[in-house]
Design goal:
This protein has ten helices and eleven strands. By secondary structure, the protein is of the alpha+beta class. The protein folds into four domains: 91 residues, Orthogonal Bundle (Arc Repressor Mutant, subunit A), CATH 1.10.10; 32 residues; 86 residues, SH3 type barrels (Roll), CATH 2.30.30.520; 98 residues, no CATH class. The strands form three sheets. A five-stranded antiparallel beta sheet has the order 6-5-4-3-7. Strand 1 and strand 2 form a beta hairpin.
Length: 361
């Protein structure tokens, strides 16, 4: 990078860091973060030294065209290496809404922002609701504006939970999660995690993150979480890669690290084939080729019309529940391990219904 272009890039990064109220950045933290972001833009770049950041801050405050107001303050911080608490000297803009790169929105940008806010407004519990409301008013958005897109929601007892975790992920904060089991609400436990992803499945929200101790990937439904506590003095470790890839081979949210990947063949009745074809059970779903079709039809003479599909999935609870949910409109043909699990689930349901009918008669 040319020196002058590099300087302006550093100013933009510093501008973002100094206006951030979710982290407490010391001079060393600013140096580390600026270096990290510059290397992400240009892998061959060697980073910056503390002295360079000191000069940049002095320029922003006293010499350049910006003359920004930077405050110095102290916060208690915990050192994992030294296992003790100390006072950390930090820097930030005195005015959290200040930025040296502010500009007015064009009409097109305002329109797109209005549409985005209309969608976001349907999710309860998002952070900075006051700021969201100010944006709505500034864009002349009315509360009774008709929604163009609607999402099915599962109301949480404490909608702040979604907002707290959204903030923790976006601001890269380590958090303590206090939670309980469904069948033991009085036994509150806690764990420190690096939060990575909020995921909705079947009208329930989940948080995925790695345990601070040991790094194991954990998942909690938000309705089991009693409290979220940000740990601002703990160092956040990002997920190495794209966390969404963890869900490519499963249905639902139950992750098992050593789960086997199955090629699952299933027949769907004439009544349900169009529904399953247009709303696949999994992204990998496909119709089988002609030779496979002949093989299965000859093996199972009972299969009348309908269609045969294939998916590639790892075993979990949601897979079996989904395959069982169609009743006799969907039959698992292979492999026998998955067929057996579906059969046992349906057999158990059948026995339960027999018992109910016996008692009611």
């Amino acid at each position: 990078m040319p020196a002058n272009k590099n300087a302006m890039t550093r100013y933009k990064i510093l501008d973002d860091l100094l206006s951030n109220r979710y982290h407490n950045y010391s001079l060393d933290d600013l140096t580390e973060e600026v270096s990290k972001r510059l290397v992400e833009m240009d892998p061959e770049y060697k980073g910056v030294v503390r002295r360079t950041i000191e000069k940049d801050l002095y320029y922003l405050e006293y010499e350049g065209p910006f003359l920004v107001d930077i405050e110095r303050y102290s916060v208690p911080s915990y050192s994992m290496e030294k296992q003790k608490t100390y006072m950390k000297q930090c820097l930030r803009y005195s005015d959290p809404s200040f930025s040296i790169f502010k500009k007015d929105l064009s009409n097109d940008e305002k329109y797109l922002l209005k549409e985005a806010l209309s969608i976001l407004g349907q999710f309860e519990g998002l952070p900075n609701l006051d700021a969201l409301e100010r944006l709505r008013m500034g864009l002349d958005m009315k509360e009774n504006d008709k929604k163009i897109i609607s999402f099915t929601k599962n109301p949480l007892q404490n909608t702040n939970r979604l907002g707290e975790l959204f903030t923790a992920i976006s601001q890269k904060q380590v958090v303590s999660i206090y939670y309980h089991k469904f069948n033991d609400s009085d036994n509150i436990q806690f764990v420190n995690i690096y939060p990575y992803l909020l995921k909705e499945y079947n009208r329930r929200w989940y948080i995925f993150g790695a345990a601070e101790e040991g790094g194991k990937m954990l998942c909690y439904s938000l309705d089991r979480i009693d409290k979220v506590e940000p740990l601002t003095s703990h160092k956040y470790i990002e997920y190495d890669g794209d966390i969404n890839e963890l869900f490519e081979d499963i249905i639902g949210v139950s992750l098992f690290e050593d789960a086997k990947l199955y090629k699952i063949y299933f027949w769907v009745s004439e009544n349900s084939k169009n529904y399953v074809e247009t709303k696949p059970l999994h992204e990998s779903q496909s119709k089988i080729n002609e030779s496979e079709e002949v093989k299965f039809r000859e093996k199972y003479g009972m299969l009348d019309r309908g269609k045969i599909f294939r998916i590639e999935c790892k075993y979990n609870y949601e897979l079996i529940r989904e395959l069982s949910s169609f009743g006799n409109d969907l039959l698992v043909l292979e492999p026998s391990e998955i067929q057996d699990k579906v059969w046992k689930r349906i057999k158990s349901m059948n026995e339960d219904y027999k018992m109910l009918r016996t008692k009611s008669s």
